[in-house]
Write a structure and sequence with these properties.
With 161 residues, the chain is α+β, with helices and mostly antiparallel strands. Helices cover 19% and strands 33% of the residues. It has a seven-stranded mixed beta sheet, covered by helices on one side. A hairpin with a 2-residue loop joins β5 and β6. The protein is elongated. The relative contact order is 0.13.
Amino acid sequence: MTTHDGCGPQCCGRTPARPSPPRRRRTAVGGSRPALSLVPRPEDARGVPVPLSSLTRNPMPPSVRGAVVTEVDGRLMATWMPSEGPPRVPHGRILLSWTQATFGRTDVRAHLGLAGAQVLLAFWPGLRGEWSSVVRPTVVEVAELHAALRLATRARDHRPG
């Protein structure tokens, strides 16, 4: 029974207010963009990005170490990082990698490339189903923080003495 300030419709005659519909988590930026997009073949300059969400339920291809996330025109894009490529994640980039865990779950890792090292940024064990919207907030915040720090460093280095 829905109550009105502690009483029911029998005591005050008001009809119960309709509960608001449950909010759905948005997986797109601006309503139409996917949370993260991946360019399936980086060698194809005209490659059409696909939502990373369309790939997250499957294992990564055996020839890659993960997907390197880059901001392009305000959008997060990712390209596969080949296994035979450079050993470190490029400076300022985030490498997402995932492996199948037990019972249909996926372990996801994010590594951040820094000037002197590559560090484990986050680990999400045992995610179910499509996980790109779970990791997106961390990826966005870290990418923005890194860009702000890079800008502050440039401003400091160019400050008159």
